[in-house]
Amino acid sequence: MRVLSVSIALLMTVLQLSGCHTLQGVGKDIQRGGEVIERSAQ
């Protein structure tokens, strides 16, 4: 189950990163991806 959660989080992060066009957007996307991973780890 944990592997599935991490896989989904990484997929969401990749999708978010593919949609941003600025450095500020990259920072926000990375932060959101980190939050998803933190939530799945708890």
Describe this structure in words.
The protein is an all-alpha fold. It has one domain (2-32). It has 2 helices and no strands. It has helices at 2-19, 23-41. Helix 1 (2-19) packs antiparallel against helix 2. The longest helix is centred in the last third of the chain and has 19 residues, at 23-41. It is elongated and about 35 Å long.
For the termini, the CA-CA separation is: 13 Å
Largest sheet, in brief, is: none
Mean residue pLDDT: 78
**Outline, from the CA principal axes?**
elongated
The percent of residues in helical segments reads over 70%
Order of helices and strands: HH
Strand content: under 5%
Q: Could you give a short description of this structure?
A:
With 42 residues, the protein is mainly alpha-helical.
Topology:
Blueprint: H1 2-19, H2 23-41
Helix pairs in contact: 1-2
Keywords for this entry:
0% strand; mainly alpha; single chain; 42 residues; 2 helices
